[in-house]
Every structure is written in C-alpha cells, then in structure tokens.
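**Folding the chain**
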Amino acid sequence: MGAPLQKTIMSMTAKHLMIIAGEASGDLHAGHLVLALKAQDPSLIFSGIGGEQMRAAGVHTYADLTKIAVIGFAEVLKHYQEFKRAFDLILDKIETTKPAAVILVDYPGFNLRLAKEIKQRGIRVIYYISPQVWAWKKNRVKLIKQYVDRMLVLFPFEKTFYEKMGVPVDFVGNPLVDTVQAVTTKAEFLASVGMTDYQFTVGLLPGSRPQEIERHLPTMLAAARRLAEEFPMLQFLVIKAPTIALPAIEKYTTTLPAMRLKIIQTNTYDAINACDVCCVASGTATLETALLLKPMIVIYKTSWLTWALAKCVIRIPNIALVNVVAEQRVVPELLQHNANPGRIARELKSILTDDERMEKITEELRAVREKLGEGKASQKAAQTILNLLINTA
C-alpha cells in the first residue's frame, strides 16, 4: 500500500472498513455493497482482499483470491500456500491500520478462520452473505456466534435459522433482485445472434470455475447432441460466465457435429431470458435463472473425494439454491453420476414437451422470486452496517 493511503487510513481509523471476498460472486456483491456504503457516507475508506469489482468500487486490495477459483477439499489443498500468504497479510494489515470493522463476504473456509483472529484483536466483525451452515457443518454456527458481531443474510429462512441459534442477524434481501434484469426481448436477442424465436431454445450454463467447465460442459453438450438428433429444430446457447476464458468453452464446442449452437459471452441475462429451458450448474446461476422465471434442471459434478465427503455432511434434501429457497423440489437436480447425458436429455425433453409442467415450474419460480426480497439489498445492508458502527462506537 502506498504511503499517502497509509497515512490517510491511519489518521481516519473510524472511517476505515476492511472487506474480504474470495470468489467472483462475493467480489461482485462486495463491490455493490461498497458503492452503497459510499453513497451513504462518502468519507469512508476501504481496503481488503478482492477482485476487479471491489477495485472498481474504490477498494484498495492487498491480494486477489478470486483468481484461484477452486472448490472442494482436494483442490483447496493444492493452493494452501497462496491462501496462507493472503491470510497472514490481511492480519498484518489489520494490526497496522486498526479498521473500525471488517466485513466478511461469504467464503467460509477462509473467512470463518479469519473471523476468530480478527475478533481476538478487538475488531468488530460483520458477515455479509452467510456460509451455507444450514446445509452442512452446523458446528460452524458456534464459531459465528462467538466471533461475528452481526450476520447480514440474503434469504428469509437464514434469518429464522440464526435467530433460533441466538445469533444477531438481519435479513436484507438478495442483491440479485436488482441486478438480474433482461433489457431486450427474446426475439431481439435471438435475432442478434443469428437465431429465431419460433424455435425452442435451450440454455447451457456450465459454471463459473474452470473445474466446473471441465466436468459439466462435455456432459451438457453430449445431452444437447441427443436432443438435437431427436428434435433437429432445437437451438442451444452456451452461456459463458465472465470468469471463464473463451478458449475453455471453444475447446469442447469446435469439434461438435453440425447443430444450432452459439456461445454467449456478454448480455448473460438477455441470453437466459431468450431460453425456453436451461441446464444450469448448481450455484448462484440457479437463482439468476429463477429470477428470470425460466424452467431449468440443475446438475453438479465434482471430484470423487469431495463428493464422498459432502455426502457425509450435507443435511438438507436439496442442494440447488432455487430449491433450498423454495423449501421444496421445484426443479430437477441431477448430481454426480446421475448428471449424465441420457438423464439430462430426458429431463430437458420432459419439460420442453409438457406445457403444463413448464407453467407449473414458472409459477413456483415466481414464488421463489418473491421470497428474495423487494430489492435494494445492498443499500439495506449498507444502512445496517452504518447503524451498527454508530450504535457501537
């Protein structure tokens, strides 16, 4: 960190907030939160760990863990030294700058360990976007209760969960409600990519991490080929996450037999909105697809070790966020060995060829959308944080 910023932060400790995000989705939400905080108090200064979205919002970042997009026990171990360096660095910066509070954004494997160290240094800890402790590792709630001053959660059921556990919590709504908007019609978007709106369109969203592309995209494309053989008029959109390089997608699409398929690199929400049904890798994309009221099936595949460990600890019947929020199985889930081309093709065909089922799913997704709040989640989170800082100053 440069000397001028260091001097400013040191002289304005009460106006200095640190914010820690380790994944692309967390970086995005953290960036929006910082902008909302600045709008309410322009004198605030921010530093921390994050990526491009946080830097664009004016956060001075010490390290960027969003570039290490890994998931699963084995994958995390490979990058242990990088995580350790970032962990030690942020603790050193906390000791030096003494921020008014540290805001932790999701990323529980890193952030919950960090919360303990921060609290022991007498710094307030605010956690924005809850770890999925309601799904697995419920013993982590004890750590949260001990080391986190306030939880800011995105889902109403999370507020109920934490209140039962005696953890101070606020439901602020989900920021996706504000950001997930289509700006063009289905017909306009499809025309812009050389397709027509009178044919059924299937969206393929394989994930936002390189490992997810490797595990999901070949399977999705194999399912797409089966559907195209049975229904030659089908057209497909491979919707690329911004964290994925185009060659990682083209690696699997350039050798495909002739079929109507386009890779979409931008205007993600317009692309999802142009689809009749989607095949989505489990994660935030399921909520984005739900907010656009698009029927979908959800798949996920991971390493055998991570899968074996997950089966031992997951305590909820559904893993797709859209189903978790709905508190019922609204859309099909195909996991691990069940996420194979045959099963995926059959599930997509079942939805595409059944108007009543498509309508039923759409109505259930509408109920999910209502549960995600009325909007302005980032502003509500910002106001809650400022109130907390004022009331505990």
